Amino acid sequence: MSKGLKQRIVGSLVLGALGLIILPVLFDFTDPNRIDRSSKLPPAPEITAVTVDKAVRPAAVAGSSLRTAIFDVDKLVPASADDKPIELNSMNMPKRWYIKVGTFANKDNANSALKVLRNKSFKAFIHQARGTSKTRYQLWVGPNIDKRRAQLDQGKIDVELKVESKIFAAVL
Known about the structure:
Blueprint: H1 3-26, H2 65-70, E1 76-78, E2 97-104, H3 107-119, E3 124-130, E4 135-144, H4 147-161, E5 166-170
């Protein structure tokens, strides 16, 4: 083999080796549509179960005392224009506002109006008022702790049922 041929072969090998080293550095030959499937999320933490004690009603509190206090409409007074929208009562509890929708002599009429109000997502209930000769059924909505919210609800109820409802405030 001649000396010139040897130099060309060695030169070709050196250029090929340099091409294998330098070309991947200069150009990125990875597929741009390739999806990286390696997870960058840390492993899930180990969690131990916690037991939660069930709440127990104190023995001194009667079972229906709260319900009686909230739905005792006999202690309600008509709202006045001077009342603040949100205030605390004498026991530092939020003052409650109720809407008296109407009084019905027929229980079925009261129940149908109650169903309409509940379908419209109002918190409605019926209170039986025993009169001298007959039992009347009062339809109430509430309680609300914001008088402005009660006034908005009153407007919606008056339009829906075509009545003139009244707003009452809880004394206690």
